[in-house]
Amino acid sequence: MILHNDPSYKIYFGDSKDDCVKSDGQINKEYFEKKLQDLKLDNLIFLKQIHSNKGICIDSPSLLNKKLILFEQEGDFIITNQRNVGIGILTADCLPVVFYDPVNHVVGVVHVGWKGAVTNIISNVIKKLKKCFNTDTSKIKIYFGPSARVCCYQISNEFIKNFDNCSFCEDIFLKKDGSLHLDLPKLVKNQLLDLGVPKGEINFDYNSCTICDLRFHSYRRSNQDPGRQATIVALK
Ligand SMILES: [Zn+2]
What we know:
Elements: E1 2-5, E2 9-13, H1 29-38, E3 43-48, E4 55-58, E5 68-74, E6 77-80, E7 85-91, E8 95-101, E9 106-112, H2 114-118, H3 121-133, E10 141-144, E11 154-155, E12 173-176, E13 179-182, H4 184-194, E14 202-203, E15 229-235
Parallel strand pairs: 3-5, 3-7, 4-6, 10-14
Antiparallel strand pairs: 1-2, 2-15, 6-9, 7-15, 8-9, 8-10, 11-13, 12-13
This protein binds zinc ion (ZN).
């Protein structure tokens, strides 16, 4: 695991040592209790992820009725201005994206698969940040976590149909050794740039490839093993 410790926020990027999901697919509650303690958080919240383009805004302590709020509400992103509240997502090959708005002191975490990307989850996150906190996109900082990268994310010729109505999709496919690959991080980066996020504020340091880097859980490599790694961000 990696802990990115900024004076204003901390980000936890998990790996294959994360046992948040048991081999039978059940949630391991002890894992989340331990994370709450280890990261010294007041609350920890995860949504029931459904590959959607929807999410929630936590802008009041009244929305935090207990310490651990696990997979109760459906959605694929969370934003908050509440300090010491861990907001998290689980991934295996999908892309974890962390947002930080330094002006309003707001963080966000987003689960982006290809489905969420083509249905504009990133633009929905920005809309919600603007609505809840009046965020200026030109001030946002972004971190990409570990995901399937273009080196290994093989797709079929038919799969490209899913991207027919997608903007920014022209240069996200790569032909490699006679097969076709998808560059999901590049698609999300293109979308962020179009929405006004500065290029220099998109950090790829933690975007290792979950398929070829054996330190991570990978849905594709492991023949659909239910293991997932967590990404958690909290304001200090
Ligand atoms: Zn790879």
